[in-house]
Design a protein that fits this description.
Blueprint (H helix, E strand, L loop, with lengths): L1 H26 L3 H23 L1
Helix pairs in contact: 1-2
């Protein structure tokens, strides 16, 4: 139970971090960085879904 909560928290932190990277890249017109940020958000969301369903 605790492991699932830790995985969910880690995924949430990943999503927030990716969102910050994506937004900062977008506002600095660095679209490669924004793209990486979006990928990080997607990976975090997939991990969170995997944690929820396991």
């Amino acid at each position: 139970m605790i492991e699932t909560q830790l995985a969910t928290v880690a995924a949430a932190v990943t999503i927030v971090g990716g969102a910050i990277v994506a937004l900062s890249g977008h506002f600095q017109r660095r679209y490669i960085r924004a793209g990486f940020g979006i990928i990080i958000v997607v990976v975090g969301a997939v991990v969170m879904q995997a944690g929820v369903w396991s």
